TrEMBL record:
Protein's UniProt keywords contain Protein transport: no
Organism per entry: Kaistia dalseonensis
Keywords from the named record: Signal
Protein name: Spermidine/putrescine transport system substrate-binding protein
Record has ATP-binding as a keyword: no
SUPFAM superfamilies reported for this sequence: Periplasmic binding protein-like II
Signal peptide stretch: 1-22
One Pfam family from the record: SBP_bac_6
Length: 367
């Protein structure tokens, strides 16, 4: 069963430091311990993703810690592999924290790759968006969209089926490798959900068939679509989360003009989750990072980057969201039909898409 989290009602509960903070540690003690460690190592956090540039800067300014940023363009699968590869490594290549697609949280827990920690705002995170034991927790979400360079594409596609038209020859790209990157996997799933008319059980298979047809038609460009390739015309249509597309639109400043389209069907919302590596060289800095991300300041930082923070309902209920931030977001009706795949649905689709992409579609996506 899918859940539309945009309609969730979250009770406004008092925030008590005793709720978590390493289950006994005060915030002051945590800050002191983190400062003693001196730094935090992140991975796969491009500055234009969800406003992370400003979020990282805010964390550094607030606590005076250095942030070692590994491989900003990595996908969720790469993050998991980085933890596995650095189990006994306390050096700069070992990530302390990860930000991964929803389905990667439970699998990382099952493999013993992450450790539990409940932030002080734990009770304001919807239960359906977090592990009950604190191993992983939802951080933000958006919906899959079409990012279109309208200098090149004059007839902008409105739905998934439109992408198969001859008008879009050598035009359509994914924003990652569907064998490992959550964003790309969810794009394939969304296309399939549209083709399957909302039947989640068929979405992965139908998505692979759709991309096989797209590739056969010569419309699929097998490279990772980015703002630069969009602007250069190499990938004039990129399938990516709306917050990334909207951020690109700001960055490009009309050169070229960009239109962000939420498709008429197959509107898939994607939740990303945070977790701390079980082998984190800087565990206290990692916990402090989580405290910052789930504070009002951190959550509003994501909203500035066009993401819906997971505590959105709580912030809205308590009048903590500035009107100018809300005004910059797409209208609420654009999200009215958004589908939030369940964990079971995501795990099943990821398994099919990642493993069968090569045989069904046969297009290796270059970075």
């Amino acid at each position: 069963m899918t859940t539309n989290w945009m309609r969730l009602t979250v009770s406004a509960l008092a925030i008590c430091a005793s709720t978590s903070l390493a289950f006994s540690q005060s915030l002051d003690e945590l800050v002191a311990a983190a400062k003693k460690e001196g730094s935090l190592t992140t991975i796969a956090l491009p500055h234009d993703w969800c406003g992370y540039g400003d979020v990282i800067a805010g964390f550094k300014a607030k606590y005076g810690l250095e942030v070692n940023e590994l491989n900003p363009d990595a996908g969720s699968g790469d993050e998991i592999e980085a933890i596995k590869a650095n189990k006994g490594n306390t050096g700069p290549q070992a990530p302390d924290v990860i930000d991964v697609g929803l389905s990667f949280g439970p699998s990382a827990k099952a493999e013993g790759l992450i450790q539990p920690y409940k932030v002080s705002t734990w009770d304001t995170i919807p239960d359906s968006a977090k592990d009950a034991d604190g191993y992983w927790y939802g951080d933000y979400y958006g919906v899959m969209s079409f990012e279109v360079n309208t200098d090149i594409v004059k007839d902008v596609p409105k739905d998934w089926a439109d992408l198969l038209k001859p008008d879009y020859a050598n035009a359509v790209a994914l924003a990652g490798d569907p064998r490992s990157a959550n964003q790309a996997i969810q794009a394939v799933y969304a296309a399939g959900l549209s083709a399957a008319k909302g039947d989640a059980a068929k979405a992965a298979d139908e998505g692979l068939k759709f991309f096989a047809e797209l590739n056969k038609a010569g419309n699929f460009v097998p490279v990772t679509g980015k703002a630069a390739s969009l602007a250069q015309g190499a990938t004039p249509i990129v399938l990516r989360w709306d917050y990334n597309a909207l951020a690109d639109k700001d960055t490009l400043k009309g050169n070229p003009p960009v239109e962000v389209v939420i498709p008429a069907s197959g509107v898939v919302a994607g939740v990303y989750v945070q977790a701390i590596s079980a082998f984190a060289p800087h565990p206290n800095a990692a916990k402090l990072w989580m405290e910052y991300l789930y504070s009002d300041e951190g959550q509003l930082g994501w909203l500035k980057g066009y993401c819906h923070p997971i505590r959105f309902n709580d912030l809205a209920k308590n009048g903590k969201i500035p009107a100018d931030l809300l005004a910059k977001m797409p209208p609420a009706e654009a999200y009215a039909t958004a589908v939030f795949p369940s964990l079971a649905e995501q795990n099943a689709s990821k398994e099919i898409i990642a493993k069968q992409w090569d045989t069904v579609v046969g297009a290796s996506v270059a970075k």
